[in-house]
Design goal:
Blueprint (H helix, E strand, L loop, with lengths): L1 H21 L19 H18 L3 H23 L2 H12 L6 H39 L19 H58 L17 H40 L10 H8 L5 H54 L15 E4 L5 H20 L9 H12 L6 E5 L9 E3 L3 H4 L2 H22 L9 E6 L8 H14 L1 E6 L5 H4 L4 E10 L4 E11 L31
Parallel strand pairs: 4-5
Antiparallel strand pairs: 1-2, 2-3, 6-7
Helix pairs in contact: 9-10, 9-11, 9-13, 10-11, 13-14
């Protein structure tokens, strides 16, 4: 027992020593027991140590601060290493800059550094420009260098440059001499050109004199009688003046002959234009005598009658001009009226898309527009031009024979809308009814290929309801819920699916259209969708020979009837609940 107690004491001592070694700051040597020192229990000491440790951790430095300190020390060591790599000259210059006013504080150092960067950039720019200019000058020097030998030509000793300044001086002197010699060359060329002009003028004068001499010789050769000869007065001037007057007279004669030829050509061209105009197919129905004369007379005789025709056509021209202006005003008014109708029709298309918005509670169709009509509206100038072409085409069709173009108001409006929406036209898409009511749109041109019979009928009913709501809106009854009534002849035979009937009723309720279904089928699944079913019977009066349609019964949904006034109210069961007792496990 003593041995076991000793082992336990040794284990306890080892555990306590290990625990003491884990305590930071604990002495290695155990102090001697002092009788005067108050002794505390071990659990109390452990609790005090735990509280002290928690307090120390609260006031201790955080890990982020230690990490920041480590980064700062790393940056400091890197900066110091970089500073050690710098030379003493750079350090000395840095100390001088820090002692200057620019290094007194942080903002001043930043401003000085920015100015230094700008100066460095400026110097680098200048250096690059200088390098570029040096390369260009070297290229020019290599390009201008002589191919054979060291120089283009041999210069005398006094013209050989000693240095760059002397070369510049010699170059300026040579340039000045070259400019003076170039000016002298230009003056010599101008003098040469003047001499050539004078020589040509002399040759022209000589040829003119030869012509005059030849003309005089021809006149002298003519032998005329004295009676035929006309007495001419001699020229009062000198021979030089006579020659000048004769030359001017010949030049005037040549100019008059050229003008006469041009006038005759213009008259011939105008006569041809007049004849072609009179022979045009546009005027085949014109039976005036003037047109017949223009077509039959020769071209040389047309100028003699031109003034008479002009005087005769002037009043008619004024009348036709007034009529054309009146027709143009009428055409503009028709185009303006048609433009208003076309704009109203386009607004109607936009209203049709807006009014086809479906109510809530239809899945993906909730809030969707059943119709989507897309087109690009032209500007006013383009619309006016296109509508004018439509009016002109209708007018030309009215003049032509055997023309099948309709010219009623609706046809003109439809052609005007089609012209206004050119070249893309109008694109109309419609939602495809299906069992899950997916928001899938199909162009109206593909409805017959994509839709089934019931879907096609449902789409037709929705389109009719949209048009009925649009008509009610155009009549100023957009807030009136009742947009009309639609009688349907046995639609259940084609569209007896429940979702199609629900969709038809939802669209009609949203657009305010009353749907009346007539059918001879007794499909209970389809008829269960309607709140009221009226069964009718054919009756015949054999004596009177008449047939009647009488109401046989009314079928309504199984809802409790409201009590009438004065009727006794009886109790009725509106709901039931069944409770099944679980089987007992005890015998």
């Amino acid at each position: 027992a003593a041995q076991r107690a000793a082992d336990d004491a040794r284990r306890t001592a080892r555990a306590l020593r290990a625990e003491r070694s884990e305590i930071a700051g604990a002495p290695d040597d155990v102090p001697e027991d002092d009788a005067q020192t108050p002794k505390a229990s071990l659990p109390a000491l452990r609790e005090a140590y735990r509280a002290a440790s928690q307090l120390y951790e609260k006031v201790g430095v955080g890990a982020d601060l230690r990490a920041e300190q480590a980064r700062a020390e790393s940056d400091e060591s890197a900066a110091r290493a970089e500073l050690d790599r710098l030379s003493n000259k750079v350090r000395t210059r840095a100390e001088q800059l820090l002692e200057s006013p620019d290094g007194s504080d942080g903002p001043s150092r930043q401003a000085a550094a920015a100015r230094a960067e700008e100066l460095v950039q400026l110097l680098e720019t200048r250096m690059s420009s200088a390098s570029e200019q040096l390369g260009r000058l070297r290229g020019e020097a290599e390009r201008h260098a002589p191919e054979d030998g060291e120089a283009h030509t041999d210069l005398p000793e006094e013209l050989q440059p000693r240095d760059a300044e002397h070369a510049q001086t010699l170059l300026r002197t040579a340039t000045a001499e070259l400019a003076s010699h170039t000016e002298a060359l230009n003056q010599a060329r101008e003098a040469h050109a003047e001499l050539l002009d004078a020589h040509r003028a002399a040759e022209d004068a000589a040829s003119g004199f030869d012509e005059i001499a030849a003309m005089l010789r021809d006149l002298l050769r003519e032998h005329t009688t004295e009676e035929e000869q006309e007495e001419t007065e001699p020229y009062p001037g000198s021979p030089e003046e006579a020659r000048q007057a004769a030359a001017e007279a010949r030049r005037s004669l040549r100019g008059c002959a050229a003008d006469l030829s041009a006038a005759e050509a213009a008259v011939r061209e105008a006569s041809d234009i007049l004849v072609r105009h009179a022979n045009s197919t546009r005027y085949e129905q014109v039976r005036t005598p003037a047109r017949q004369q223009i077509r039959e007379l020769p071209a040389s005789a047309l100028p003699e009658h031109a003034q008479k025709w002009a005087d005769a056509f002037a009043p008619r021209l004024r009348v036709l001009t007034d009529e054309l202006e009146q027709l143009e005003r009428n055409r503009d008014s028709i185009v303006d009226r048609l433009r208003g109708l076309v704009e109203s029709a386009l607004a109607t298309l936009r209203s049709a898309q807006r009014l086809s918005r479906l109510p809530e509670g239809l899945g993906e169709w909730s809030g969707q527009e059943f119709l989507r009509i897309r087109f690009e509206e032209p500007d006013q100038a383009t619309l006016t031009e296109r509508l004018g072409e439509v009016i002109d085409e209708a007018t030309r069709a009215a003049v032509k024979k055997n023309s099948d173009m309709r010219r009623d108001g609706m046809s003109l409006l439809l052609r005007g809308v089609a012209a206004a929406l050119q070249p893309k036209g109008v694109a109309v898409e419609i939602l495809k009814p299906d069992a899950v009511l997916r928001a899938e749109r199909v162009p109206v041109g593909q409805m017959g290929d994509v839709f089934s019979g019931g879907q096609l009928l449902t789409a037709a009913i929705a389109l009719y309801c949209t048009m009925a709501a649009l008509r009610s809106n155009d009549r100023g009854r957009d807030k009136h819920r009742h947009a009309g009534t639609l009688f349907l002849d046995n639609p259940i035979g084609r569209a007896n699916a429940t979702y199609l009937l629900e969709l038809q009723r939802a669209v009609s309720d949203a657009l305010g259209v009353q749907l009346l279904y007539t059918t001879g089928l007794f499909d209970t699944t389809a008829l269960a969708e309607f709140p009221l079913v009226i069964r009718m019977r054919n009756d015949a009066d054999l004596r009177a020979g008449l047939k009647y349609i009488s109401v046989e019964e009314h079928l309504r949904l199984g809802l409790p009837q409201q009590p009438q006034a004065g009727e006794a109210v009886h109790s009725e069961i509106t709901a039931t609940r069944m409770y099944k007792r679980p089987p007992s496990t005890t015998p």
